[in-house]
Amino acid sequence: MLVDSHCHLDRLDLTQHAGSLDNALEAARGRGVGHFLCIGVSADNASAVKALAERYDDVDCSVGIHPLDLKPGEAPALDWLLGELNHPRVVAIGETGLDYHYEPEAAELQQASFRLHLQAANRTGKPVIVHTRGARADTLELLREAALPQAGVLHCFTEDWDMAKAALDLGFYISLSGIVTFRNADALRDVASKVPADRLLVETDSPYLAPIPYRGKPNLPQYVREVAEFLAMLRGECFERFSEQTTENFKRLFPLARVKAG
Predict the structure, then answer these.
(1) pTM
(2) CATH architecture observed for domain 2-253
(3) Do 259 and 250 touch, CB atoms closer than 8 A?
(4) From residue 195, how far is each of 6, 118, 189, 191, 199 by CA, in Å?
(5) CB–CB of 181/211 below 8 Å?
């Protein structure tokens, strides 16, 4: 069984499935995907991801504010975040983090928000889902400063081995998306070959970043199988065992997720 450890079910392009999320999830289940983590990115979609987690037994969710979804000049309120996290199907915090690639001018605001999410992680014990782009040094500095006992995951990882190793040393997991299949992703494939088997997750980040051979098309949770098959081949591992291992890793990192035996 596979887990799509990071997908945006409320944002999927469902054209391929006649506009039906039920059909999209069933297509993924038919390809061996047994659980989905639906990711919160803003105050506006917190209710949507919680409703999806309540609707489907094999969906859990996270709540948080993406660094590119912050309101100008305004970090989220800690009380709001803690209130949203107090829900049985919210198993993680985020996605949060830093993105200087698109909004370097918002670095101070992003850091304030990231610190707040990390504070909530320390208070609740829930793992944190980290987005980082163009902010390697600051991301690692804030994670070290937080010293989270339960850590979290650097999702859709696109950095080099030095950053991966630093995050692993802090107790974090590394999650890989369809980017690892892209022709120009040699450096990322090097990282993928080195991450310890018990610290690796797979994801789609759908509807974004569809893997080869679907690149350029809307991504769907069913395509996490292509990511997993590619990584198993890259690492010289049996696909079935690789699937089991990444699912075990997900369950260990997100112990509140209601993952059924696959």
Answers:
(1) 0.97
(2) Alpha-Beta Barrel (3.20)
(3) yes
(4) 18, 24, 10, 6, 7
(5) yes
